[in-house]
Specification:
The chain is built from 4 helices and no strands. With 138 residues, it is an all-alpha fold.
Length: 138
């Protein structure tokens, strides 16, 4: 929804800029690939899903989670950056910034306290080793 349907609806009636395809398509591709990789790791390593009623039963620290604690959110923001590039859209860039802000507050106020309660010292050790966002943005 956030990375697919909303950008498409926001750009309804606009034409992608063909000259930006060589830049935007790799960004979109990396974002989609990373998102699918994270969903797979949630299922295989975490023994759960993205659904609130079936969260991971084990702390996921494999794959992209070795480098950043929130790679799914980073992947969604990468996809949004790809859309913004494809359409050369300030509206989509502003939307991506708003989404990033919401993601940050969700992580800090809801997800991290839940992870701390759920996984205790395993979470503490992981959080001490791996940045919340990309290096330099934690």
């Amino acid at each position: 929804m956030v990375a697919g349907l909303v950008p498409i609806l926001l750009m309804r009636g606009h034409t992608p800029h063909a000259a930006w395809l060589p830049v935007s398509l790799p960004v979109l591709g990396v974002g989609f690939f990373a998102l699918l990789w994270c969903v797979r790791d949630f299922y295989v390593s975490g023994r759960g899903t993205l659904a609130p009623w079936d969260p991971p039963k084990r702390l996921v620290i494999v794959g992209l989670y070795r480098f950043v604690r929130n790679p799914m959110y980073v992947a969604v923001l990468t996809i949004l950056a790809g859309w913004a590039l494809l359409y050369r859209s300030w509206l989509l860039l502003g939307y991506a910034i708003a989404v990033a802000t919401v993601f940050h507050f969700r992580v800090v106020l809801h997800e991290e306290p839940w992870l701390k309660r759920q996984f205790g010292t395993d979470w503490d050790d992981y959080a001490a080793r791996v940045p919340r966002w990309l290096r330099g943005l934690a």
